[in-house]
Amino acid sequence: MARLARTVLLLLALVVSTTQAQNLVADKLKKQGLTAAAEVWDLAGVSTPASNPKAKWTAFVPSNAAVKGFLTEMGLTMADLKARPGLAKRIVGSHLLLGSNVRAQEIFANGNTRVANTAAGSSSRLLLKQAGGKVTVAGKHGAAANVDPAYVAVDDNKTIHVVDKVLYGDGYYPSFSALCNARAITLSQFCQAAAVAGLDSILDAPAGFDHTLFVPSNKAFIAAKLDLGAGAAAPSASAVADVLKYHMLAGPAQPLPALAAGKHETLLAGQSVEVLYKGGKAFVNGVQIVKRNVYVGKAIVQGVTQLLVPGKSATAGAAATTATSTAKPSASTTIKTPKGSISITPGSITLPKLSITPAAAAAAPKSPVSINVSTKAGRRMLLDFGWGASAGPTALEDASQQQIQAAVDGDESAADAGQQALGGSEDLSVPGTANLAEEGIYNW
Questions:
Q1: Which of 68, 84, 112, 118 has its CA 20 to 30 A from that of 145?
Q2: Residue 122 CB: number of other CB atoms within 10 A?
Q3: How many domains, the chain?
Q4: Is 395 left (phi over 0), alpha (psi -120 to 50) or beta?
């Protein structure tokens, strides 16, 4: 009987210990008054795997005021965020460094400027700077945040640095203006077409644009030979608007894969598009979606590299190979709209010159910064960051960090592996500089 009682007590102690471990991060955030961030981490599904005692990480966690300001800037409420768990994952991933537990005094051991990869991937690096006794951290775009000098030790393997702004990673933008500025190299023609059509003010309306959009890249406009230039042959602004409306679904916005397969009404009256999932890929009217779920305010953008043409079968298109889906049209196509027709024929593309200014590149630091990224499968770990690296992670550390990475990636992890890389060709020795490939920084 005594033996049975001891066994029961041991089991109860194990359950309590496991529960405490599972709630470690959420409890620590709440005790520090970071209740909004705790809710975001829970929405992202990261709190539990991040609480694993073997997991090693550093997180820049926004204050309550920072989260509130971010939601206001995005035009979202917390209820909207709950309907967009993928956005919560992007936010947490863009603030989280896996595999390194870094305290404030260790960050700048080798210089006043540091670059770090995040769990969101190399396209969402952080840039840390120290000047005048202050430390700032900046995301892929948007304003830099101030880092509170008093760090929070979660345990021996985990550290929290409180920041006064939510950092913007590659997968989310407060507005279409911000998206156009950050991706001017590859989306400028869509942005210019929206301006020509008079839709730019609607996309960035204060109330938000709560719709899913299939946004064609510059590749799509170039491949279609669509001429939006001035002159008698140029289509009317209303006709251009109808073409773009055919790329916009009736609201509310839905991410993939929550957006159901089948036909969906567009903002072009009487016209619909067909969404299909096949072989781990997503298609719209037979055109593969090459970049999933970019959150732009209330809108959710799906990236495509072809213009959508009314009447094209999604089933037939999805059966084609990727090479076929990206092939340039060999014959002219006419898109008919209630306001007229647009002829897509061979020829050079001409767009009116509008003022879309790319974000300024960061100034080069006085001393170069070098980083090495682990090539081990499933890891995005910064090794040379200005502090001493251990002999290497244990199998348990690896497993715990892979669980966090899987939570951050969510449903998109498998699909993203087959999509075009976002990193492009970048010079890692100096933050803010890039060797731009012909296609630009981004391949979408």
A1: 84
A2: 17
A3: 2
A4: alpha
Q: What is the mean pLDDT of the chain?
A: 75
Per DSSP, helices labelled H in 97-183 are 104-107, 176-182
Residue with tokens 């073409």: 243
d(CA 365, CA 429): 10
Are 281 and 415 in contact by the 8 Å Cβ rule? The answer is yes
Asked if 94 and 139 count as a contact pair (C-beta separation under 8 A), the reply is yes
Distance CA 298, CA 253 (A): 7
CA-closest candidate to residue 204, choices 178, 240, 171, 241: 178
Report if residue 16 sits inside a domain. Answer: no
CB atoms within 10 A of CB 108: 16
- Whether 187 and 60 map to the same domain: the answer is no
| 3-state helix, strand and coil shares in percent for the chain, rounded to the nearest 5 | 35, 20, 45
Phi, psi of 75 (to 5 degrees): 75, 30
Between CA 44 and CA 87 the distance in angstroms is 8
CA-nearest of 429, 439, 400, 350 to 158 is: 400
Q: Which residue has the tokens 């010079």?
A: 427
- Alpha-carbon distance of 367 to 265, in angstroms, equals 54
Residue 89, classified by CB atoms within 10 Å of its CB into exposed (0-12), middle (13-18) or buried (19+), is buried
What amino acid occupies position 147?
A: V
Answer for the pair 109, 130: CB distance below 8 angstroms, yes or no: no
Looking up tokens 């590859």 gives 186
- What are the pLDDT digits (tens) for 125-146? 899 999 988 999 999 999 999 9
Do 109 and 125 lie in one domain? The reply is yes
| Chain center to CA of 69 | 19
**42 near 91, Cβ under 8 Å?**
no
CATH of the domain at 57: 2.30.180.10
Cα–Cα distance list, 25 to 57, 68, 130, 156 (Å): 12, 20, 27, 13
Domain range for 203 is: 175-344
